[in-house]
Design goal:
By secondary structure, the chain is mainly α. It is built from one helix and no strands. The relative contact order is 0.18.
């Protein structure tokens, strides 16, 4: 098996009022799929990282 990074994306920087962590994840994942030119059915795994989860009510990853 070979790992391949075929697309990437990131959220805007700064204070994002009215955005939830879940909404940001969906937006970034969708942008990464668009960048790669593939659909979700062609993905085996998505790796997520975020910084400073202490500011989020939901701390995971």
């Amino acid at each position: 098996m070979t790992a391949c990074i075929v697309g990437w994306a990131h959220s805007r920087f700064g204070k994002l009022e009215g955005e939830t962590l879940e909404n940001l994840i969906v937006k970034v994942a969708t942008d990464a799929l668009d960048h790669a030119g593939i659909g979700p059915d062609e993905v085996d795994e998505i790796v997520l990282g975020h910084f400073n989860a202490g500011f989020s009510a939901q701390d995971f990853t």
